[in-house]
Write a structure and sequence with these properties.
It is built from four helices and no strands.
Length: about 120
């Protein structure tokens, strides 16, 4: 590969990973902060809202670990197949994905517990 284009595969891979991680973070944020039905909301105390928010936070953490693991595996395969010198890429992308999705789950869960949205 010419020297002018040796960083192109890394750039394409990082852009794709950023798009995937951002999409998962957005969906987790929506799911963790989304409203609940009126019939459930009527009987909830403040502790009930916090419990549901905690459940959503834990589910977001599981999705965070799952997304990071999947991207780590895919990136490790791609880096190996393309014989790229950037062996750090799968690990850094997995850590960044876990942090991004975990923060989205935290923000969504806190938003849910504070605003108590219902239909």
């Amino acid at each position: 590969m010419p020297k002018d284009f040796q960083h192109l595969p890394v750039a394409v891979l990082l852009i794709g990973n950023a798009a995937a991680a951002s999409f998962v973070a957005f969906v987790v944020w929506l799911a963790s902060g989304w409203m609940i039905n009126d019939d459930v909301a009527v009987g909830l105390s403040a502790w009930g809202w916090a419990t549901i928010a905690l459940q959503r936070f834990v589910i977001g953490g599981v999705i965070s670990a799952l997304a990071a693991s999947i991207l780590f595996g895919l990136n490790a395969i791609i880096v190996h197949m393309l014989r790229m010198k950037q062996a750090w890429l799968p690990t850094y992308v997995a850590i960044g994905t876990a942090i991004l999705v975990g923060v989205a789950a935290t923000i969504g869960s806190l938003q849910f517990a504070i605003t108590k949205p219902f239909m």
